[in-house]
From TrEMBL:
This protein's name: NTP transferase domain-containing protein
Originating species: Alteraurantiacibacter lauratis
Sorted UniProt keywords: Magnesium, Transferase
The keyword Amino-acid biosynthesis is annotated on this UniProt entry: no
Entries under InterPro entries matching the protein: MobA-like_NTP_Trfase, Nucleotide-diphossugar_trans
SUPFAM superfamilies: Nucleotide-diphospho-sugar transferases
Amino acid sequence: MTQSVTQPSCLVMAASRRGVDDPVAKIQGLSHKCLVTLDGQVMLERVLEALVESGCFAKIHVSVDRADILTATPAMQGWVDEGRVVFVQSHGNLADSVLKAVAEIDSPLPMIITTGDNALHTPEIVRDFVRDALASRADAVVGFTREDVVLREYANSGLAFHRLKDGGFSSCNLYALKTPNALKAVKVFEGGGQFGKRHMRILKAFGVWPFIIYKLKLKGLQGLMDAIGRRMKVSVDVSWLDYPWGPIDVDHKHSFDLTEETLIKRRLAAGK
C-alpha cells in the first residue's frame, strides 16, 4: 500500500445494517436510512456533495450493500458516471467493511472515513479535518467537537457527551487512517462503533486502563487517546472541530427533525 502526500482516499460508510427496521428508514418507509430526504435532498447525496465540494478527494468510495443505492438521484448518478463516486461492497460489521475497502482501493492510505448519515457536514468541516489529519504525525486521527461548542447552538441536541478531565466532547464521525499500523485500530468498530456512554462497549473495545481513565476522568481526551493507542500500539491524535453541528448524525426521529430544521435555516439564510 502506497501513501498519497497530497490527496487522501475517502470512504463513506453507508450500509443498511437494520434495513427497514432502522428508525430513520421507517420515517419515510425506505430500505436504507441514507436514502431519506431532508429538506428536499437525499441524505447520502448531501454527504457526498460536501465531500465532492471540499475538493479534498479525487475519488469518494462508498461502502454499501447494493451498487444501485449510489444511482438513487441524478446528482449521485452523475458522480458515479464521472468516476468521482465509486461503489465498494460492504461486509459484515464496520471493521470488516473498512478492512475490505482498504484491500480493494488503490493507494488507500491516508484514508478519511466518514458516515452516510452526517447530513450537516459541510465542505468546511471536511477541509478542516483533512488539514489536521495530513499535518499529524500520528497513525490515526479522530475528529471531535467540545460540548460547549455544541451547546452554544443546540441546547437539546440529544447527544451523549463523553466527559473527561478537560470537559465534555462528542465524535464527529470523521476518522483518518494514515499508516498501515493504523489498521490495528479498526477493530474497535467490530461492535458497530456506537459507544455513546455504554460503558461495557467501551471496556470491551479499549481495555481496562483506558476504561478506568474514562470512568474516573483521570486525563483529558488526548491523554485517553494516548492510553488507547499504547494498548493497541497505534498513535492517535485528536482534531478539534469548532462546528456545533459536527457530531450530529441522523440516528433517530429527534436527530432527523433537528437536522432538517438546521438545513431549512441554512437554505433560508442563503436566500434559496
